[in-house]
């Protein structure tokens, strides 16, 4: 076998030294002259006793826009998968990256106060309040005392505020910035807080996402237990409302928005990007565009800018489902939204910073899987994800609601319609077809089975249907030299370069805006925020509501 050459590119930096040519005489002379010039320069500088170059200082109360972006459940492997998938799909070179890859600055440790593995509620409370709380906590500390959030603090300072998500707006991440309840499943109450029904009054100016369910009574297609119609009440109280794609389109990319705006574009989640019908649901990037345009316009004559939370919510769901075909498209949809934010930052004169990170990883995803007894080949197959044109969630519903559920007609439906057409799998076995038929009335089992067919063939591995404790990436961009300088500090509780606790992201936003979250906490700590205690719930109800997402 040939010995690996000393200047193999695999050896990285060493090969550069190995390859460098001896300096020529001309170069020697140039470097002599340069050295003399350097010495003279140093002497002159010493003579003048110059002060150090000025480091730009952050003006905490100056006008700023703060954009907090959360990729729920996106770990480092999600990026590797999405990047390779996109290179294959768009025939791009191997050094092509996602937009977000160019803005990597560090990583975040994610544990909560109650567990080494956090949930999204504790994860978002860490960003919003800058403190560790227990899994399930929405804007409350470990003693269940409400904690002031960065969104509330900035609203009180005169910022405009917004929340943009692809899941229910009452779900954990947006809730932790805009509500205070003991457990994330109290979504009826979260909806009330988000519309201003609590001591601070209304603090959110713009809402875009799914989750109409918890705003509308059961009698009207929603799921509120108290019979109230919060959408009707909101409109009466001066909110403008967008409840579907056509009303969203009337917002004209944010140029025809009257704030406050309540945009509830789906009853529950907005469909996965892989399933999304664009005539029915906007993309995350389109929602972000509306929010940025509307908030910029609303603050153009103000001394203060805006705070906007953006969440790529369903990367997490694809992780829970162990659905790699859906997940890579969710990551790419987020990357498009991220690009909207970068373009905005480049276009505005207002000091703006965007920080993008995950609350945790979901699924224990790895872009490798041993599928043989023998030592594995170093391969995984993005082609399999490209062939699959729907999520496991969509296909499960399609099979579950199929009228004919046995016999050759059903088997043909599974083979031709589901496996060949929707999933692009041609090498299925008769046993797999039988398994799908057997599971056709058990949605969870069917979902996992279908997604595993894809994962196995792609040689992608998952270690859990829940979350994991792996560190997640931090990305950032700003148009402000002072904020850039601050971001770049590696010191704990100062900058965000390098490895940090998740609560430092909250602390960072607090510092650069000169806000005081403790003061906000004083204003809300006495509010009754929890109609029900954990002890009122049956064990099943507790687990069903608290442990899942
Ligand atoms: C602007 O929004 C209003 C509702 O707030 C709507 O009636 C109007 O048609 C919209 N304008 C355009 C040009 O779509
Ligand atoms: C993708 O689908 C095509 C046609 O349906 C099929 O020939 C091919 O083998 C599939 N590729 C993979 C990796 O499954
Ligand atoms: Zn989750």
Automatic annotation (TrEMBL):
Transmembrane residue ranges: 30-48
Pfam families given for it? Answer: Alk_phosphatase
Q: Which InterPro entries match?
A: Alkaline_phosphatase, Alkaline_phosphatase_AS, Alkaline_phosphatase_core_sf
**Entry membrane topology:** Single-pass membrane protein
Tell me the cofactors it needs. Answer: Mg(2+); Zn(2+)
Localized where?
A: Membrane
Question: For this protein, what is any one GO molecular function term?
Answer: alkaline phosphatase activity
Q: PROSITE patterns per the record? A: ALKALINE_PHOSPHATASE (PS00123)
User: Some GO term, biological process aspect, for this entry: which one?
Assistant: organophosphate metabolic process
Q: What class of enzyme is it?
A: hydrolase
Which Gene3D superfamilies does this UniProt record tie to the protein? 1.10.60.40, Alkaline Phosphatase, subunit A
Question: Entry's CDD domains?
Answer: ALP
The note on the cofactor says:
Binds 1 Mg(2+) ion.
Keywords, alphabetical: Hydrolase, Magnesium, Membrane, Metal-binding, Phosphoprotein, Transmembrane, Transmembrane helix, Zinc
Catalyzed chemical reaction(s)? a phosphate monoester + H2O = an alcohol + phosphate
Annotated residues that bind Zn(2+) are located at 72, 316, 320, 359-360, 467
Origin superkingdom: Eukaryota
Is-annotated flag, keyword Mitochondrion? Answer: no
Single GO cellular component term = fungal-type vacuole membrane
Q: What is the E.C. number?
A: 3.1.3.1
Name the residues annotated as catalytic in the UniProt entry. Answer: 120 (phosphoserine intermediate)
Family that this chain belongs to: Belongs to the alkaline phosphatase family.
Protein known as: Alkaline phosphatase
Native source organism of the sequence: Candida theae
Output the lineage of the source organism.
Answer: Eukaryota, Fungi, Dikarya, Ascomycota, Saccharomycotina
């Amino acid at each position: 076998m040939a010995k690996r050459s000393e200047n193999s590119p695999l050896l990285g930096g060493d090969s550069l030294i190995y390859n460098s040519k001896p300096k020529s005489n001309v170069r020697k002379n140039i470097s002599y002259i340069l050295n003399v010039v350097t010495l003279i320069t140093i002497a002159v500088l010493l003579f003048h006793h110059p002060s150090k170059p000025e480091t730009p200082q952050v003006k905490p109360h100056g006008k700023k826009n703060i954009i907090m972006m959360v990729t729920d459940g996106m770990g480092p492997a999600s990026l590797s998968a999405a990047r390779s998938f996109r290179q294959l799909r768009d025939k791009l070179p191997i050094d092509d990256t996602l937009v977000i890859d160019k803005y990597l600055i560090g990583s975040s440790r994610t544990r909560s106060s109650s567990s080494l593995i956090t949930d999204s509620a504790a994860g978002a409370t860490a960003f919003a309040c800058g403190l560790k709380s227990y899994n399930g906590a929405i804007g409350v500390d470990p003693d269940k005392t409400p904690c002031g959030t960065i969104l509330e603090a900035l609203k009180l300072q005169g910022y405009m505020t917004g929340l943009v998500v692809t899941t229910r707006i009452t779900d954990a991440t947006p809730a932790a910035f805009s509500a205070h309840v003991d457990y994330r499943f109290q979504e009826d109450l979260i909806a009330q807080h988000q519309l201003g029904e609590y001591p601070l009054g209304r603090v959110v100016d713009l809402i875009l996402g799914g989750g109409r369910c918890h705003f509308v009574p059961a009698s009207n297609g929603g799921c509120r237990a108290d019979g109230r119609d919060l959408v009707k009440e909101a409109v009466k109280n001066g909110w403008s409302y967008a409840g579907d794609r056509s009303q969203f389109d009337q917002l004209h990319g944010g140029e025809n928005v009257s704030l406050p705006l309540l945009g509830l574009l789906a009853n529950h989640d907005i469909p996965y990007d892989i399933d999304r019908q664009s005539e029915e649901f906007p993309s995350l990037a389109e929602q972000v565009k509306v929010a940025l345009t509307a908030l910029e316009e609303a603050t153009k004559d103000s001394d203060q800018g805006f705070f906007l939370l953006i969440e790529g919510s369903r990367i997490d769901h694809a992780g829970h489902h162990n659905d790699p075909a859906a997940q890579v498209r969710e990551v790419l949809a987020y990357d498009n939204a991220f690009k909207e934010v970068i373009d905005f930052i480049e276009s505005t004169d207002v000091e703006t910073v965007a920080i993008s990170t995950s609350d945790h990883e979901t699924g224990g995803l790895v872009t490798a899987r041993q599928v043989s007894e023998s030592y594995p080949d170093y391969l995984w197959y993005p082609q399999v994800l490209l062939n699959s044109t729907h999520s496991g969630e969509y296909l499960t519903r399609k099979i579950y609601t199929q009228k004919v559920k046995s016999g050759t007609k059903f088997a043909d439906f599974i083979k031709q319609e589901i496996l060949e057409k929707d999933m692009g799998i041609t090498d299925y076995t008769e046993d797999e077809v039988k398994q799908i038929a057997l599971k056709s009335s058990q949605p969870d089992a069917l979902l996992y089975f279908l997604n595993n067919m894809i994962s196995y063939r792609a040689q992608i591995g998952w270690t859990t249907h829940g979350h994991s404790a792996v560190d997640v990436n931090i990305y950032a961009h700003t148009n402000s030299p002072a904020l850039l300088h601050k971001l770049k500090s590696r010191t704990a509780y100062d900058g965000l370069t390098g490895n940090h606790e998740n609560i430092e992201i909250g602390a960072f936003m607090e510092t650069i805006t000169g806000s005081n979250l403790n003061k906000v906490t004083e204003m809300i700590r006495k509010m009754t925020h929890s109609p029900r205690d954990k002890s009122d719930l049956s064990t099943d109800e507790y687990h069903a509501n608290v442990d899942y997402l």
